[in-house]
Amino acid sequence: SNKSSGLDLKQDAMKSQTLLRSNGAQAKRALFERMNSEPLKAKDSKPKLKRSQSFGVSSASGIKQILLEWCRSKTIGYQNVDIQNFSSCWSDGMAFCALVHSFFPLEFDYNNLNSSNRKQNLELAFTTAEEQADCLRLIEVDDMLEMGDKPDPMCVFTYVQSLYNH
C-alpha cells in the first residue's frame, strides 16, 4: 500500500540521515552504493555485498596510520624529518616544509632551511600551501610556537589531512 511504502521511505531517509551523521564519507558511499544497486530479485536470499573503498580501515587510529605513512612516503630523503606522530615531529616546521616542498619543489630551497628557525619554517610552509594549493591556514604560526615542542596532535592531524585532500 502507499501508506506503508511512504513510511518505509521515511524510515529509510531517517536511517540514511543517522548514518550520514555518524559515519560521514563512509556512510555517503554506502548510501550511494545502495541507491545505485539493482533491487534484489525474489530468488536471491542474501544480498551481494560490495567491497567498501575505505581500505578496510574503520578506526581513527587506522586512518591516522595511513596519513602518517603518506607523510613519510612524501618526505623520504628530506634531512631533519622523521615523522613518527602528529605532534613533536612537526614542532620545528621542517616536516611541514618537507611535505609542502614535495609538491612544490620550485617554491623554495629546502636545503637552506634550518630546524632552529621554527617561526620562519612554519610561516614558509603554511604560506606556500595557502598560495600554491589554496589550502586554508588551519593552524596559525603563533599557535604552533606557543605549543612548543608538543603541538596539539589534532591540530597537526587536521592540517595535514587538509593537505592530503588537496
Describe this structure in words.
- The chain has helices spanning 2-23, 25-36, 60-74, 94-103, 118-133, 141-147, 153-165.
- By secondary structure, it is mainly α.
- It folds into 2 domains: 2-36; 60-165, Actin-binding Protein, T-fimbrin, domain 1.
- Helix 3 crosses helix 7.
Report the principal-axis shape. globular
What gyration radius follows from the Cα positions, in whole Å? 22 Å
Percentage of helical residues? 55-70%
CATH C-level class of the largest domain is Mainly Alpha
Name of the CATH homologous superfamily of the largest domain: Calponin-like domain
Overall structural class, as computed from helix and strand content, comes to: mainly alpha
Q: How many DSSP E strands?
A: 0
**Per CATH, which architecture of the largest domain?**
Orthogonal Bundle
What are the secondary-structure elements, in order, as H or E? HHHHHHH
Low-confidence stretches: 16-23, 40-47
Brief summary:
It comes from Nothobranchius korthausae. Helix content is 57%, strand content 0%. The protein has 166 residues and is mostly helical.
Task: Provide keyphrases for this structure.
57% helix, mainly alpha, Actin-binding Protein, T-fimbrin, domain 1, 166 residues, 2 domains
Task: Give the helices and strands, then pairings.
Blueprint: H1 2-23, H2 25-36, H3 60-74, H4 94-103, H5 118-133, H6 141-147, H7 153-165
Helix pairs in contact: 1-2, 3-7, 4-5, 5-6
